[in-house]
Write a structure and sequence with these properties.
It is built from 13 helices and 23 strands. The chain is α+β, with helices and mostly antiparallel strands. The chain has three domains: 102 residues, no CATH class; 245 residues, no CATH class; 189 residues, no CATH class. Strand 18 and strand 19 form a beta hairpin. The chain is elongated. It starts with 86 loop residues before the first strand and ends with a helix.
Length: 596
């Protein structure tokens, strides 16, 4: 037999079509084991005798060779031929052993033990490749996979909080020793995550132990609570959010998704109800927890491996929470995981049954600003404290500063004007042809920041951005107002409204309406104000900080008399000033008189 030509490992190039013919009814098929099957403890590693290279002995009374040792006749079914094969290949100066697919974990481990004993006897190191062991809850598997731009590590399940702490801490420590980072700096110095997910997978050691199959109301509680508290969706996620992201919210897809979700919630039995079939929760939520295209994996709550009917490997009773990004420090990651554990424990005892909120455009107006995200997050912490879990809101202060970094602030006449980064969804654009392929770009050219001013006691002072009035909203605290500003940060050839130019630098003025003059102001530049083009990324945090500081200037304001424009308050987005929209001119008296 000759291998199929190529440079892949030998196990991928076996000429199975050259093997003797076998009747279809004689082929031994292997099937995935039932995930609900009770498994015995794994056997101990066998002790093997050292009989390698021993000379065989033959006697006249030896048993004749079996029939299956003879080559099959023409047209005869060779059912005894083994298709899976252990392949050994020297390649690139190393000896590779290609593992074949096996049905049972014990067989795989026995084969690995034989390879280890042989390699130890010959004092010859080998490298294993090929098929991974079959999925089995009796072994802990840690997988390291190269992904575009990141190294993905799938950590084995933790049976206790102490084990979870040890695993997470060791993972961060080993990554740092390998010169791998859990944070990065953009060209402009902005501190951000790596883009990789810090997804949390919840379940049991076996599907029988899964809390979501035993108590479907637990998943209903999590989905409902996450929906009513948008800060859980946005505070711990990455820069890519919105309906076309990797983890869209349920209400970011279809306009009627909340109505359909309420119907689904009514089908879930409450706590204390008789046991339900395990497939119920999958059938109820499968077509709701998806993205715009119906992809069940790209969802905030992914139930691909809960109880999908496609295969046994998908019926594991697992739920994946995907709206988490890899934080820069191990303790920040542990704080996120502790939050999830506490919410699960809380909803296990007290299911969540509040009515779902129809957020509408409020989701893209209010909860993309750090002020309202923080208020909502304080409600989450208060709920946990009331349930008996001693959470502190200060535990998540690093998450807020990392997610919503301070741009700069100025103080004039007892008033403090503060600018912070806010959230802005990235949307996938229409299909375009690039070279010989079809691509769909992501529009990240629009950014948003939060404007907060404190110390204002009356309507004498207003805030302008590039000469347009910022729609300030009272927060409820004395003299505190907040608003958001959307602007075009850069102008790529492919984006929404590509004809709209860049709006930066953003010039903010605190205007005294009594005198018609600005008493102070500041400037924010997306790039270096001196026009310096950074062709390389910052090498460390100090260089990144210097770039951030250079983009904010706490001096300068618009000189002379300023004609204060009317407030541009969009009823759909009342807290946001969108600089992409043209300002409406103040109507003349003649136009006012002619208006009905």
């Amino acid at each position: 037999m000759f291998l199929i030509p190529g440079d892949s490992p030998v196990g991928y190039r076996l000429p199975f079509e050259s093997l003797p013919w076998t009747k279809p009814e004689d082929v031994a098929y292997s099937y995935d084991p039932d995930p609900f099957e009770r498994r015995l403890s794994l056997p101990e590693k066998p002790e093997r005798k050292r009989y390698l290279f021993s000379e065989p002995t033959f006697t006249d009374d030896a048993e004749p060779a079996a029939d299956h040792a003879k080559p099959p006749e023409k047209g005869e079914s060779a059912a005894w031929i083994a298709r899976p094969a252990l392949c050994i290949e020297p390649r690139e100066g190393k000896l590779f052993v290609f593992m074949p697919p096996v049905q049972y974990l014990s067989d795989y481990l026995d084969l690995v033990a034989a390879i280890e004993d042989t390699a130890a006897y010959l004092k010859m190191p080998v490298l294993l490749e090929g098929y991974a062991p079959p999925s089995d809850p009796r072994i802990a598997v840690l997988k390291v996979t190269p992904d575009p731009g990141v190294i993905e590590v799938n950590v084995h399940p933790a049976a206790s909080w102490d084990e979870l702490v040890r695993t997470t801490t060791a993972l961060y420590h080993l990554a740092r020793q390998s010169r791998l980072g859990t944070e990065k700096f953009m060209l402009d110095g902005q501190h951000s995550g790596t883009g990789g997910g810090n997804h949390v997978v919840i379940g049991g050691a076996t599907p029988d132990d899964s809390p979501f199959l035993r108590r479907p109301d637990l998943l209903r509680s999590l989905v409902g609570y996450w929906h009513n508290h948008p800060s859980l969706s946005y505070l711990l996620s990455g820069m890519f959010i919105g309906p076309t992201s990797q983890h869209p919210r349920v209400d970011e897809a279809r306009t009627d998704s909340i109505y359909e979700l309420e119907i689904a919630f009514d089908q879930i039995p409450d706590k204390g109800a008789p046991p339900v079939p395990p497939w119920l929760v999958d059938r109820v939520f499968r077509h709701l927890l998806t993205d715009l295209t119906g992809n069940t994996h790209r969802a905030e709550f992914c139930i691909d491996k809960l109880y999908s009917p496609e295969s046994a490997s998908s019926r594991l009773g697992l739920v994946e929470l995907r709206a988490f990004e890899m934080p820069p420090h191990a303790r920040m990651s542990l704080t996120q995981q502790l939050l999830v554990r506490a919410l699960i424990a809380h909803f296990w005892r007290n299911p969540y049954r509040r009515k779902l909120v129809w957020w509408g455009t409020t989701l893209d107006d209010r909860f993309l600003l750090p002020h309202f995200v923080q208020l909502d997050w304080e409600d989450v912490v208060a709920d946990l404290r009331e349930a008996g879990y001693a959470f502190q809101k200060d535990w998540f202060a690093p998450h807020f500063e990392f997610r919503f970094p301070l741009i700069g602030s100025i103080t004039r006449r007892g008033m403090r004007l503060e600018l912070r980064h806010a959230l802005e969804p990235w949307h996938v654009l229409g299909e375009e042809t690039s070279g010989s392929t079809t691509v769909r770009n992501v529009d990240s050219s629009v950014e948003r920041l939060q404007v907060k001013i404190t110390g204002v006691t009356d309507s004498r002072y207003v805030v302008l951005c590039n000469g347009r009035r910022v729609p300030l909203h009272a927060t409820g605290e004395r003299g505190e107002w907040v608003a958001g500003v959307r602007y075009r940060a850069w102008q790529p050839p492919s984006c929404l409204h590509p004809n709209i130019p860049v709006h930066t630098p953003l010039v903010f003025d605190i205007v005294d309406t009594w005198s018609g003059r600005a008493i102070g102001g500041c400037e924010y530049h997306v790039t270096h104000p001196g026009g310096r083009a950074h062709e390389t990324f910052p090498v460390n945090a100090s260089e990144a900080e210097s770039r951030r500081l250079a983009r904010f200037r706490d001096i300068g304001h618009t000189p002379g008399i300023i004609a204060v424009p009317d407030e541009e308050r969009n009823p759909e987005f009342p807290l946001t000033l969108d600089l992409r929209r043209m300002s409406q001119p103040r109507p003349t008296e003649a136009v006012k008189a002619a208006s009905p």
